[in-house]
Write a structure and sequence with these properties.
Layout lengths: L35 E2 L12 E7 L6 E7 L7 E3 L1
Antiparallel strand pairs: 1-2, 2-3, 3-4
Length: 80
């Protein structure tokens, strides 16, 4: 058993308003925890790999599939 120096528990709650746009940061393409696919092609640079994830989109019910190009010089984002 190890004794902690500080027993505080921190909780970070993020609240978004309905009108707020979902922001996708360009560096998500480097995130090793996100799944990758080679089944799509970026329309901007024609790179053949993208990361993808699902999130709610503004004003819509349900989930939207977001893609981010893995080309470090591009970072184009799109959704399906």
């Amino acid at each position: 058993m190890e004794v902690a120096d500080n027993n505080c528990v921190y909780r970070n709650e993020v609240h978004h308003s309905v009108g707020e746009r979902t922001q996708v940061l360009q560096d998500v393409a480097a995130d090793p925890t996100l799944p990758r696919t080679k089944a799509v092609r970026c329309v901007k640079c024609q790179h053949g790999e993208a990361v993808f994830f699902q999130a709610t989109s503004r004003g819509e019910e349900g989930m939207t599939l977001f893609f981010v190009c893995c080309n470090p010089n591009c970072g184009h984002r799109w959704r399906e």
